[in-house]
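Re: the pair you flagged

First of the two:
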Amino acid sequence: MLRDQPIARRSLLKGMGAGALAVGAGGFLSACGSGIKGAGSAASTGTITIGFITPLTGDLADFGASDKFVLSTVRALSAYTKGFKVGGKTYKVNIVVKDSQSSPTRAGQVAQQLIQTNHADMVLTTSTPETTNPVSVVCEKAGTPCLSTVVPWESWYAGLGGDPLKPTTTFKYCTMFFFGLTQFQGCFVPMWNRVKNNKEVACMYPNDSDGTAFREGFEPLIKASGYKVVDGGAYADGTTDYTSMISQFKSKDCEIYSNCPLPPDFNTFWKQASEQGFKPKLATVAKVLLFPADVAALGSLVDNIATDSWWGPYMPYNSSLDGQSASALASAYEAKTGSQWTQSIGSSYALFEVAKAAFGAVSDPHDKTEVASALHKVNYTGMCGPINFAAGPAPGVGIIPPVGVQWKASTGKYPYVMTVVDNSLNKKVKVQADLVPTNA
């Protein structure tokens, strides 16, 4: 999920944490001292202000493409229109939206604006460490409750200064829900095991924070699963010729493929791989092909490529706000927008469920310490299933297990659809089709 500039570090922790901390050193964080806590007139108002930061424009816009729909849906729910009952009093709810523009610096700046100008009682943020990490750093420093999603938990945790290998640090104001490298292993390896192969894995990991995280954190998990790693090398983002990498994968007869590149880079690689005869038995991809817009550029080359899915109409979950099912929410999105559903609908929706649950557990919605404490104690079931922030794997981290899906050709309205082929990490989700080798 990470998209960042190349880094020259061997350490997984440094690689994942550097981005957010460097943003803080740029200047905007210095203005966010603890004196902001409870700033302005917010403490005396009858309105709860929730900030929402998401990449609506820029390179990460695919992640935020469904957020306008989610916002309009949530704002229309009686749970929000009637206000939150807190401590025997009903408070109006105001949601203030900020576009990170896919820039870490911009994400931190708008977080500061929400805290200082809008007097946000809580900040919600989503979609890649470039958005969530700088926002979380600002909120932790300023003493403002913050909830993040769609970011590997290790990257988020390291970005705040924690050690994912020894996750004992509690960040007082920040929480998140999603999954991490262990869940990638639990999602991808069972699919590998179901395809007869020689256990040689072609790894396409770039020289950026994504590549560092996967190279230092995921490759050991590949080896621990009984597979051999063939690392194609830390190539530069934007590379246009992958001939040498493809030749290496072919020479090692790699029958499994793993990646975490930028979508345009994968498209270039995958087309060249097809032309040059590299056809692994199963391709499992991370960061790319998460959304329908990514699929269109590859056409038939996307057949049976596998990836992870954290939400979809196949999830057996319902809204904690109005009882609507995941299937109904996906259908409502397609009816309103004319576009195919995306995974981000569920995770963004869940942010607002958790926010309401936390505010409902306090006596004063403007007491940021009390609200932050309530966030850490949220344990509920909603649009993304059960989320328990006290269950770990680190303090304030809730895990939503992904399922394995393949993109399969469809005779319906949309040419390709995500289809569940493995539920090893979440047995409550029904398998919809057999796993098929990518180049069957």
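Second of the two:
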Amino acid sequence: MKAKSQLINEDVVQAINTVERLNIKDGLLINFGGESLQYRHIFNIKYDPAANFTDAPMDLLGEENGNLFDSPSYIPNSMIEQALRKIPK
């Protein structure tokens, strides 16, 4: 999620890197900061359903000096697994 006047290419690249590093099938890049809602559906072409998912480490989320669980970027593994179960196959 973003809150910027306009999404830029770097935001899309960051979203692609995030879905690839977390090994999730797809995600949404949502910007609430513009005149109207902007969104991009991001697909992970490197998705590996056989890979085991673990919570992302702090440095991957850019939270090097804080508590991972207090990070605004932290998503518990159980929430991701629950969301993935709702995605039609």
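The chain has two helices and two strands.

-B.
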